[in-house]
Prior knowledge:
By secondary structure, the chain is of the alpha/beta class. Helix content is 44%, strand content 18%. It is globular and about 115 Å long.
Amino acid sequence: MEIAAKYDPKNIEDxxxxxxxxxxxxxxxxxxxESYTIVIPPPNVTGVLHMGHMLNNxxxxxxxxxxxxxxxxxxWVPGTDHASIATEAKVVALLKEKGIEKNQLxxxxxxxxxxxxxxxxGGIILQQLRKLGASCDWxxxxxxxxxxxxxxxxxxxxxLYHKGxxxxxxxxxxxxxxxxxxxxxxxxxxxxxxxxxxxxxxxxEGTDEYITIATTRxxxxxxDSAVCVHPEDERYAALKGKRVIVPxxxxxxxxxxxEYVDREFGTGALKITPAHDINDYNLGIKYKLxxxxxxxxxxxxxxxxxLLVGTDRFQARKEIIPLLENAGNxxxxxxxxxxxxxxxxxxxxxxxxxxxxxxxxxxxMAKPALEAVMKDNIRFFPEKFKNTYAxxxxxxxxxxxxxxxxxxxxxxAYHLPNHEYVVAKTAEEALRIAQEKYPQxxxxxxxxxxxxxxxxxxxxxxxxxxxxFDGIRHPNNPELDYYYPTAVLVTAPEIIFFWxxxxxxxxxxWKNGIPFKDVYFTGIVRDKLRRKMSKSLGNxxxxxxxxxxxxxxxxxxxxLCSSPAGNDLLFDESLCEQGRNFNxxxxxxxxxxxxxxxxxxxxxxxxxxVAVEWINQRISQVAAEIEHDFExxxxxxxxxxxxxxxxxxxxxxxxxxxxxxxxxxxxxxSYGEIIDIFEKLMLHLHPFMPxxxxxxxxxxxxxxxxxxxxxxxMPVRNTFNSQFIDRFxxxxxxxxxxxxxxAQKNIPQKNKLDLLIMxxxxxxxxxxxxxxVKLCNLEAIQYIAEKPQGAVSFIQQNIxxxxxxxxxxxxxxxxxxxxxxxxxAEKFLQSVLKKLSNEKFVSGAPEAVVNIERKKQSDTxxxxxxxxxxxxxxxxxx
Length: 878
């Protein structure tokens, strides 16, 4: 075949991905092999490929490809998440562009638009993952709102409800005024912001006295039900039993005393607004305070506020200040830094709000899930995340699972005219239950009204490892029994509570066991300045453009070579360039080897035999390192080990030893062994860089249609001879020294040299000598008993080597250089001796520091001895 001068990723990647798909190499069905399963963390159906996806899915693909090659029946299940809030927001925005408001549509009409959007735009990210080389079984692609997936979610809701683990009630929730829905505690992101602390005075009823409170939210004064101080705060002891007047609305409210108050914060007096703060809400329950909700769902003030009705909450904060000032209630304003909760989905400031919602009890479900991780039945990599997990699980709160949206699985609860409700899978079943429970109502199906809310998206995705195998509807089906529990979950630590913890709970609730054996936490992809990559900062490169520029293998290399588990990845585009360069290095090695003529009758040189033995030993050694790295999920270390093996050992050294002299052929035995070695290296590299390895594997030998590197067996890890590897490493150092002498003395490579070794011939290493002769262009290697004259020497492993150089160098110039080196060494030795003769230094410095100086002394003395000998030798040859 004609080999291109440069590796062209685009054509090669498209060609081989189509080939893999055509031959169904990604497909898995249960068989007699042991399974190895990964379920993809389903990306939002609204999503497009970003750097985090690239990292996460590269890791999953590496693990699944390696498992496939190690003889497992490997399955990677793909899919997408319906992402209630994000998708509904997209559809609402699309409708607005058409001049349609959501509230103008019926639920069914809106859902029709939503499904149309999903079919048109959803799943783009799964197509993009193919460009990365993802070897998912695409025939198994799932969507969390597929009919069978939604049915599983409904079944789980009903099951938990009948177990008493789901209930409905009014609670303080996190309200997103932009998405117009409640969200869970885990979906609230707290950020430090520069705020103001407003000091406002409240008149003590029936007196001329005032009590001053401090608040960051003066607009909520309009909903105050009390003022609270600490019972041991002597400043307010005289006010027990008093009431105060809420500014502007002149509402009389009690002054209460509770240990909840921090006496050191502000003035030690707090305004209490039970409708708009969780802690105030709890105090409200304790002291039976009035609950005054002053906000509409969209964050504007309602009629209960009495003032600024219809004004947005943040605008109201600005406008209430002059009102308080004019009324004489504003004391002062200070700068203040505090933490504010933001919606993880919309980045809107969260509004604590009393709301009637559906909740799932978590305390009992958390216990087995906590124990599984703490006892390492599920292993976390890195292990540090066990503490984070344990803290959350030990303090778990009930999960608000209802969302005030239309896109999602609708809650299977049916409300009756008597304000009761029944939970059932269908309206018909609900009617039957209601008729049995309330026969006096003479109910018809028209009397039932299904709950308007949908379930939290996470309430579907917590079932993912089970539901992708239909394990909720059919709990003992053959596929579930074969593929479950899965081998490993690859995910980000940010969703350890949203998803990881809940999946483990679900595993124990419906399968009485773990859903996966290991969890590998990736880090966050950051730029060189350690900033999280984001569109708003403009520091996140386009993933597909990177692939177009550097090739998928180059980008995978760039992502993985700096991605230690659990630690953030500092992404630099130069890493992808390094990956592309690696591709080119391998490609050029293939071009070199492919261009050699073969001599069918030629004999294998000793240096080639030795090099073949060495590289095979090194491959076995590195294979053992890689195996250990994979066991610990140190994929970055594994990649660097194979990278150095190929770049340094194979390309830069092995091929130099074995390549035939210019215009000479290589013997057939050596060529065959070199091709076998090349093939073995491609097998080890394939999980990391699948495209170039497939291209080269296909061309190294004759292949049949339907064969592929990805379904070959990973080379078995053989034992390796450390002593042989050490001997070769010592040989490499000798070669370096000889080359250094050539460079220093400006001796051309074409000039042959002699190497004299001061040892008896009984210690001769003929195998390694052959390698030295080949690499250093030596005339001969001789073993000598006496030091020769007119030779440059060096020492390696206590053996002295000599290279006669007088014929190749200018003796006068060399003497000047050596004399200068000797003078420098002698001056350096004097400085070291001076330091060591200082008793204060010797007795006061750490022992390690003193030992370093003594080592400098001995090394410099040895160097002076050798320099003097070299000068004496040259003087004899003048």
